[in-house]
Amino acid sequence: MRFALPITVAAREPLDTFRITLQNYHKLNHPWKAVEALSRPEIAHPPMMEKDPKLILAENCLSKLTEEPFASVHYAALLQRKHLLPTEPFGDSKIGLFEDGEISYKHAALHWAEYTTAINDPPSSFLLKLSGFILSVAAVTWSEELVDIKGGSEATTINVQIDVRTQLTDWAYSLPPPKRTKIPLSEFFVTAHEKLRHKLTEDGDDSLLAYLPAVRLGQFYSIGGKSDDDFRKAYVYKKIVVDGYTKILGKRSPLTLKARTTWANEFFSRQCIAEAETELLEIASIQKEVSGEGSLPYLEALQLLGSAQYCLTKFGNAFISLKESGRGLFRLLGNENWAYQVNDLYMGIGPQ
User: Fold this and answer.
1) Which of 6, 22, 133, 172 is 20–30 Å from 64 (CA)?
2) Which InterPro entries match (predicted)?
């Protein structure tokens, strides 16, 4: 009688149970060789012996971020429409990360700066590639994809990008001056969005889309501003959006009113408090009619109005505005939300 020879696990070869033989043509990798390849990646990837692994990772990330369709004006613009005009028709279901491309793009979007800033001596070729990405429309796509990847409230949309700018700035100052000057830090975020804005204005097919890069630039300078000139630019960009929305959508459009409210907020840093009060009185009045007195847009405008009145020492008017907005915000958001707690702060300081 013929018995099959025992087969060890170490053989790592698939068994044909019908014939009780090994299928050599389906032979798997030898386990020890596989372990060695994993332990010593330069065996599996010879270029890693010649280049800094961190440099390779950073280059691969930048290559992924600048692929089509991510580098196209159409793709970046439709992502901004998706995020900034959620009530508008959104006809392209292919916009966003899907299927096999999702993981690699997500990884590149989240880690390219980490890999880049780990390089101690970046070659000129890499700095050229980095500069090309920072100044391209692909950087707008990266910024917008982060909105979906990271999630969070609209108020935190630009925070990650500002953190990346800080990361790159710290790294650049550790490099020799000749290399540092090849990194366009002062143009980070701004040039890419201006480029998209110019192309959309030039194209002219959708007049509303051309104002969306200015929305992001206003947010960027408002949240990440470092100087009076930066805050002035926040004011200017937000005014551009208000004027554009008013012209296209009209004065009573919810989008126009929202843009006006965020623009009015910039009056405070410019010490134009009386102008802020005048603007917010009109905004709150229209919001009450358009959105309703229990709506969040109306309550936010009313709270900001109360802040302006408080700064002008019109305490009676301020407390009326703050009490009404406080009751509404408590009902909508609860007492743990910072927007409601701002009212508590004003009401607590006032009597003192």
Assistant:
1) 172
2) TPR-like_helical_dom_sf
